Structure formats: structure tokens, C-alpha cells
UniProtKB/TrEMBL annotation, chains A, B:
GO-annotated biological processes: homoserine metabolic process; methionine biosynthetic process
Region feature (Disordered): 1-25
Protein name as catalogued: Homoserine O-acetyltransferase
UniProt subcellular location: Cytoplasm
EC number(s) recorded for this UniProt protein: 2.3.1.31
Pfam families: Abhydrolase_1
Gene encoding the protein: metXA
Tree of life domain: Bacteria
Enzyme active site: S203 (nucleophile), D371, H404
Reactions this protein catalyses: L-homoserine + acetyl-CoA = O-acetyl-L-homoserine + CoA
Annotated family: Belongs to the AB hydrolase superfamily. MetX family.
InterPro entries assigned to the protein according to its UniProt record, in alphabetical order: AB_hydrolase_1, AB_hydrolase_fold, HAT_MetX-like
Purpose: Transfers an acetyl group from acetyl-CoA to L-homoserine, forming acetyl-L-homoserine.
Pathway: Amino-acid biosynthesis; L-methionine biosynthesis via de novo pathway; O-acetyl-L-homoserine from L-homoserine: step 1/1
Length: 425, 425
């Protein structure tokens, strides 16, 4: 087990202690924060070093690998109540509760407005994970890891390459969703968890859940894939390509070797985030929030360089906030992984039905009709293929207004569906 | 009249000679090009220097102003058959026929595939302008100008600032659609054209047509506004803001003073074009053309920097092609102008109906159901407001697959509608 701290984590390695959870209930008041009923409490991100290498789709073996994680709830004596939640492109291990340390990644559209989440360091799925919530921590032991390739404690491009002692940068391997899942599998081995009661996530997180069900059919009881798909559609491939181009074309990217140079591709990263942000929202949501409202007074100021419309100012704010907390090479790595993902190509010789033939988990699919980045069509194709195979599957298409971000924002609609699905276990 | 050639035009000033047109029928074979029946022939872009300044919305007077233009057909003795066609964000004066000099701007989606337009230097609306076409040059004298702020012969940010002798760069005034139209008005004065039989355009071109009808109600007989709107919707404002951010954040932009430095913001411009390109297409069109087809063989190569999917390679090609022919400061200027455009705010105290109250032209609106950048909703709002006022208006929403680019690509569907509308004059 490596004892070298992952770059950027600034925390010592700590072996996992399965069964305790990292939520320290009752310490909320001590932290000076008034928690709502149902909070997972004050939590800390912990770290675990895998004992062996992770074998990747590209053929490389990656070692050492550290995994940042949080847990919520209590592991049952039979270790049969584990729910793995998988984060999306810009998330991290801090999925629920109030972090004693980490800055929140819950800065999606609307989140700040609703509850000042950023200031309280709430987990990115805090509305879904906690006592009495969709993923009820009174019943389930919920595990959340930062993805391989991440920049929030798990080994990624900013971590030191053992061959050089310097950050990997562009020498970090190119990853697939399968690689992310293999890493989670190896991590859970260390926690002594052989089987997942459920694996859940939205967007890229849902892709991981689906990959789990296909790759480890005997080790997954149920899949919850929200606002996700078996393969990103071509326009989504294009948007992700454009976001990556914005980073690659920023001279400060320096071929990926920007660590320690005092310069980072913040300009390109900001543009990437703006593109992402608009694709995560629905057009009507953007119209309702900003319309064509001018930034200052009631007329334009005739400037090319300063925001004239409120939406321009909002996008700049989002970009600046994202650049402060996220690493560009991680963005490139995870964006590439999610565009590669293609269950039919990878597991079915081009046939989605064939790819899913071995699935033994029950599957819950939730899609949002205003989501044009991961539109309901992808979930419908999964639903049809599973039904054709006689597998148990539920599909819910919800008419929320928030677009793709609905999986982060509309807990109220998702909660009863997920609770009922998990209780039927 | 200034005798200084506009930067980048490389051509001497030439006063307009109304009545002759610039199409030289019969010279096509001499140019070694086999023309389809109905071609406007071989044409040359010409240049006219306005005698006085153009007063702009920002309060500035711009002088000198040179206008690049082409004409097709013959001006009638009563000068009552003039149709002004207005180009969109990335167009120029070369709207029809085969240019003896200019590189084609007709590099939109599909255009190259269909007829090798780029190689033949066809005008960007060649399918619509010519003998027997939608804008029938046997009947109409069609005039096309490069917009103020342009980079294809008309005075723009790359032109010399008379105060310094150096290119304006960021000192070029910030423009509105009204400023573009005022310049066209002053240009037509020099041609001796007091009244337009019709003014037509798609996208930003349609905005100009609408502005003409509102600003000069007694001088416009008919308006043809295609794939356009009275005010870009908020998501469109966001996309344009992101495209501009990509340019502004490119260090090679150098605050707009990149002329003569040997560096231009090609990286940012490329990203801007990619964003534009995806918004000009429909998702289904992109899926039909590329799907998730891999660029090489049948598997991925595990690279972050090279294209893996065919659509990535296509976007890079589009970006490289655009950067060669277009100026970044012009992009900024015209992108800003089209996002400012808001008929209700500028002319109606917030009311579209009030803004249109003085219109005397007949109006033809064409929209495309696959166009999500200028969706039919904008045309429907114009249609409803004009009907409420008792003005003559026709609205056609066509079910073409190409998205916003349909106004450039689907001439077959538009032609009978436009011909019939103009003949009813």
C-alpha cells in the first residue's frame, strides 16, 4: 500500500474501516451548522490505497491507485446493504452531508439559489442521500468514491507518476467507464464488500451503474440509472469534443504539463464549463431564469468584452467558480471516458440487447423530458432491450423543467420512485 | 470619398454603376467552369465608398465607410425592381454566381458534399438567386452587400482607423443591426435606389430585413425573413456569448490588436465556429451524417488529443476552414449585433406589436421545425403580432431536417414559396 499522499489531497492515507461509516452524527452543531432533518451529518472524505494495480482497457496497469471516498449509514453484519453511488463528470466523493473539509461541488443550476449549498459544503446528492431520503441511510450503507482520473483525492492526472515523481499530466492513461468501475470493484474488495445491493448514479454516474450490471452481473442486485444512456448521442459527442478542444487549444494547457508552472488552462476550462452548463439546462429553464434581461439598467452599453445580458454574467460566474475547484486534465479524461461509453459496441458486438443479455440486476431508469443532453430516448432504448430479454425494468420519464440537471435538482419527484424500487429488493 | 483600400480587400475603390449589374453572363466557360442552368454567372465583388459618415446607435459617427457589394440581374428603368439580400454572421457580398475572385463562404453543412461549392466559389445563396430561381434575376435586380463590421471588403475592425492609420481592432465601434441597415440605406442612396421592392435574408439577414421594414416603412415593399426572429432567445444569447468568450480568452486575441503581429486567435475562433456549427445543425442531422462512427477502424485508440469519432474530425475541419477566411473581431462585432437585436425593446417600448405598428411591407416568414437556434416560435410571434395589426403576413414552417442551416440548404422547398410571394407584389 502506497503511503504517498495523492497530489492535491493534502491528507494522509487512511485504510477503510468498513462498518463505521464516516458520518459523525451529532457533530453538526459543533460545526456551527444547523442541519435539516434527514441530513447524513458532518462527514469527512477518507482515502484508501489499493494494494495492486488496476488493469485498464488501454492495456496499461495503473499503480499505485488511491481512492477518496465517503460512506453514509451503517454496514449491516451480513454486508448486504451496500449502495454505491457514482458521480458525474464534475463531482467527487462528497455526495451527502456537510463536509468538515471539502468545498462543495454542488454548484449546479439553482442549487445555490435554493439553499446556499456551496456555503454549507453540502454533498452533490445531499437531497437524495440521508435518513428517510431516496437512498435511506437508516437502511442502506451508501458508499461514494471519487472516480479514477479524478482531482478530488483519487489518483488522477495531477497525481505523481511513480516513474518520474512528477505529476502524470498527459502521461496519465486514457480511461473508459469500465476502468472507473474496475477501480470501484477493487476498492470495495478492500472494504470487504463482495456484492452491491444497488449501484446508482446520474449522467456519467448512470453509465457506471449500467457497466457494473453488465460487467459484474452476480455482484449487483439493482441498478438506478438516472438521466443516463447506453451511449451518448452524436450531438453530445460533439459538445464534449468542443469542451475538450477549448482546453486543448488554451496555450496554458502546455500539452498537459501545466502543474507547477504557475499557469493553468483556466480560459479554456471556463469555456468548457460554459458549454457544459448550457447543455445541462433546458432552454425554457434558461429563459425562465434570465430571459433577455440586461445586466445593467435598461439599455446596452456597447461593449464586446463585458457582459451585457444577465445570462452572460452568470456563465462567467459559473466558469470562474468551476476553474477554482477542478483540474483540466481530469475534465479531459472523464469527458473522453463518457463519450467512449457504448454498451452495445463494448459488450454486444453492436447489439444493445446482446450486451445486456447477462444482466441479473433489477433496473430502474429515470429520464427527464427536458433533458436534451441525455434525452429519454436513451433510457427508452435500454428499457426496450431489457424488456425484450425479460429482465425486470422500470422506466419513469418525468416532466421536470431543469433539463439534464434535473437529476441533481428535482429530488422530490425522484425520491418516492427510488425508495419504492429499493424497498422491493 | 476615401481612396484608401479597405484592409484585406486588396482591391481599388470603384464607384457603383447602377443598372449594369456585376454578373458577366457568358464568361462562365471562359472561367473554365460548367454552370448549371439558372446561374447568376461569373461575378465580381465591387466596392463603393460612402460620401458621408454613418451615425451609429452608440452615438459615434463612422467615416470613411467602404461597402463591398455584388448585383445580379438588371435594374429596371424605374428602379423599382431592387431586392436587397442580407447575409448572416459569416457571409459576405458574394451571394450568387461564381466569383472570379473571392473564396466561397458557402461551406455550411452539406454544401460541400452536394456540389463541391467551395471549389467552385459559388455564392452563399446561389441556390436561391439567379434566372428562374427564388429571387429571379430575370425580373429582380438583386443587391448584396458585405455588412458593416465585415471582413470581406466592407469597412470593419481590420480596416484602417483614420485617426491612427492602423487597423481599428478593438477601437472599431460596437454595432447594432440598425447600424448595419443604416449603412445599407446610405449605400443604396449612392446607387440611386430610393425604395426596395423587397429585402430578404436568413438568420441575422432576416433581422436586417425586419429592421428595414420598421425603420424605413415607406421604402420597403416586402420582407422575406427566413429562420429568423425579432429577438434571439436566451439560449441563443448564451451560445453566442460562449463563442465570443472563446475568442476573448485566446491570448492571441491580444485585446483585439492582433493585426500585423503574426498571431491571430485561431484557437478561440475555431472553438467559436464549432459551437456555432453544432447550433446550426439539428441533432438528428448530425446523427444521420456521423452517428457515433469512429474515425479509425472499428475501435478507439485511447487518445485525448486526436479525434476518435468522425464528428470530432469534422468539427476540426470546419474550424480550420473558417479560421482561414474570417476575422475574429468581425465575428465578435456581428455576434454582438445579433444578440442585441430586439425589435420590441428598440422600437416598441417592450411591445412587439407596438414595434411593428408602422410596418407597411408585406411580410413572408419561413421557419424550420428542426431549427433550435432560431426556432419557429420567433416567427410565430412575429406572425401573430402582424396579424393583430391587420398587416399582410404569410408564415410557413417547413419540416426540413437540417436545422438552422436549412435556410442555406433547402432551396427546393423555399423557392416556390418565395417566388409566389414576390410575384404577388
Amino acid at each position: 500500500m502506497s503511503t504517498r499522499a495523492a497530489a492535491g489531497s493534502g491528507r494522509p492515507a487512511a485504510a477503510g474501516s468498513p462498518g463505521t461509516g464516516s458520518a459523525a452524527a451529532g457533530s453538526a452543531e459543533a460545526a456551527g451548522t444547523a442541519l435539516a432533518a434527514g441530513s447524513a451529518g458532518t462527514v469527512e472524505t477518507r482515502f484508501l490505497d489499493l494494494p495492486g494495480p488496476v488493469r485498464l482497457d488501454s492495456g496499461r496497469d495503473l499503480h499505485p491507485v488511491r481512492v477518496a471516498y465517503e460512506t453514509y449509514g451503517t454496514l449491516s453484519p451480513r454486508r448486504d446493504n451496500v449502495v454505491l453511488v457514482c458521480h458525474a463528470l464534475s463531482g467527487d466523493a462528497h455526495a451527502a452531508g456537510v463536509s468538515a473539509t471539502a468545498a462543495s461541488t454542488r454548484d449546479g443550476f439553482g442549487a445555490e439559489d435554493r439553499d446556499g449549498a456551496a456555503g454549507r459544503n453540502l454533498g452533490w446528492w445531499d437531497g437524495m442521500i440521508g435518513p428517510g431520503k431516496a437512498f435511506d441511510t437508516d437502511r442502506w450503507f451508501v458508499v461514494s468514491t471519487n472516480l479514477l482520473g479524478g482531482c478530488r483525492g483519487t489518483t488522477g492526472p495531477a497525481s505523481p507518476d511513480p516513474a518520474t515523481g512528477q505529476p502524470y499530466g498527459p502521461d496519465f492513461p486514457v480511461l473508459t467507464v469500465a476502468d472507473l468501475v474496475r477501480t470501484q470493484r477493487a476498492f470495495l474488495d478492500e472494504l470487504g464488500v463482495a456484492r452491491l445491493a444497488a449501484v446508482a448514479g446520474g449522467s456519467l454516474g448512470g453509465m457506471q451503474a449500467l457497466e457494473w450490471a453488465v460487467r459484474y452481473p452476480d455482484q449487483v442486485g439493482a441498478v438506478v440509472a438516472i438521466a443516463s444512456t447506453h451511449a451518448l448521442h452524436p450531438q453530445g459527442v460533439a459538445w464534449n469534443a468542443i469542451a475538450r478542444e477549448a482546453i486543448l487549444r488554451d496555450p496554458a494547457w502546455q500539452g498537459g504539463r501545466y502543474y507547477g508552472t504557475g499557469r493553468a488552462p483556466d480560459g479554456g476550462m471556463g469555456v468548457a464549463r460554459m458549454v457544459g452548463h448550457v447543455t445541462y439546462l433546458s432552454g425554457p429553464a434558461l429563459a425562465a431564469k434570465f430571459g433577455r434581461r440586461l445586466q445593467f439598467a435598461d439599455d446596452v452599453r456597447y461593449t464586446l468584452t463585458e457582459p451585457e445580458f444577465a445570462v452572460e454574467s452568470y456563465l462567467r460566474h459559473q466558469a470562474a467558480s468551476f476553474v477554482r475547484r477542478f483540474d483540466a486534465n481530469t475534465y479531459l479524461t472523464l469527458s473522453r471516458a463518457l463519450t467512449y461509453f457504448d454498451l452495445a459496441r463494448e459488450h454486444g458486438g453492436g447489439s444493445l440487447t446482446q450486451a445486456l443479455a447477462g444482466v441479473r440486476a433489477r433496473t430502474l431508469l429515470i429520464a427527464f423530458d427536458s433533458d436534451w443532453l441525455y434525452p429519454p430516448a436513451g433510457s427508452r432504448e435500454l428499457d426496450a432491450a431489457l424488456r425484450e430479454l425479460g429482465k425486470p425494468v422500470d422506466l419513469h420519464v418525468l416532466d421536470t423543467p431543469y433539463g439534464h440537471d434535473s437529476f441533481l435538482l428535482d429530488e422530490a419527484r425522484q425520491t418516492p420512485i427510488i425508495r419504492q424500487f429499493l424497498e422491493a429488493q
